[in-house]
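The instructor's notes for this session suggest beginning with a concrete chain rather than abstract definitions. Hand out the sequence below and ask the class to guess, before any prediction is shown, which regions might be ordered.
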Amino acid sequence: MFEKVLIANRGESALRIHRACREMGIQTVAVHSTADSDAMHVRLADESVCIGPPSPRESYLNIPAILTAAAITGADAIHPGIGFMAENATFAEMVEEHGFVFIGPTPQHIRIMGDKITAKRTVKELGLPTVPGSDGVVATLEAAKPLAARIGYPVLIKASAGGGGKGMKVASSAKDLAEAYTLARNEARAAFGNDEVYLEKYLAHPRHIEVQILGDTHGHAIHLGERDCSIQRRHQKVIEEAPSPGLNDAERAQIGKLAASVVQRLGYRGVGTLEFLYENGRFYFIEMNTRLQIEHTITEMVTGLDLVRAQIRVAAGLPLGIKQSDVLPSGHAIECRINAENPETFIPSPGLVTDFHAPGGLGVRVDSALYSGYRVPPYYDSMIAKLIVHGKTRNECLLRLRRSLEEFVIGGIETTLPLHRRLVAQPDFIDGRYDIHWLEGFLDPLS
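After discussion, reveal the predicted structure:
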């Protein structure tokens, strides 16, 4: 087992990894920008190294600085956390080339799944259903026209190297195609430095279902059930729950078994998530995230398994230690992502946190790096806390979630807490009647 792990991330993600390491008796090294010198993960780590100014490109995305920090502190392994370098195959390669262990999948698997077209082609060959669409990159508008007509409108133009909803546009009809195609390519070029796009059928009312998987280097792979991540704004997840209120037991068993089979045949190591659109009883693979997900917490709540600990064990070469039959999900869990944003305009609201009180009680978990007196910097993602609630039933979970949201206090900055309080009171949400377009319609009934 490792003696010292460097955490190449920040915020609640870094704090989550630090906690798992501490419980395993592993020392931690926190890297940070000058803007994060007073961050909670920096305060709690055994050692800390400043790796650059506030700009992510000059700090958390600065590969030489991260590797140097690992070398001077004598770290055995590097955990990339969530975001930043977590799905960067080049970073994973360089970590291993410099004699450290990368706590994550192989660079090869990161690279395969990082390209949406290659990922779809790979899993399709392994038996996963995919959304009808182009077989590869659609290089010109002229090539897109007959393809879109064959697929059938509406169609979705998606960036090959995309993520987070960037480089993704909908063409409702042939007359919309030129504008949507151009906008998607321009946005993809600006966001990823790669303007390649492909086409998919646009599904009208799908749910976003993802399956958590776990594999080791000994040929074992299991799934840990599914999560429903359909409450989204601009393709960004807002609320997630496990299990999905939209699936029956036969459907969840089917997709879980299929996901585990695919990752086992791939020889995948570590945690990962296979993401699907689900509509009218059918699943369509859309992408695989080769990292820890923000919403891994709800899977932990219903299974009782520590996914970060599992990551570390697998990276150290140990077997999973559990079989599929050992995974016995219990109850229901829901996560709310709390952002430092105006709850109506969604304009970011960095600044000084004057008050902070986290809810508590049975079945309540808060993952956050906030504290009273902390100043939320303006340079990074606006998510500042995750409220995770578990109950024996979905109804108990909803009641506990409502109570917890009422207790939650974050003063001095604007947050999306008021929005979450509104959402959990909506009849559609209470009844589980929603799809990936529901939140947009709730926020803008005219959309």
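Then share the key points. The mean pLDDT is 96. The two ends are 53 Å apart (CA to CA).
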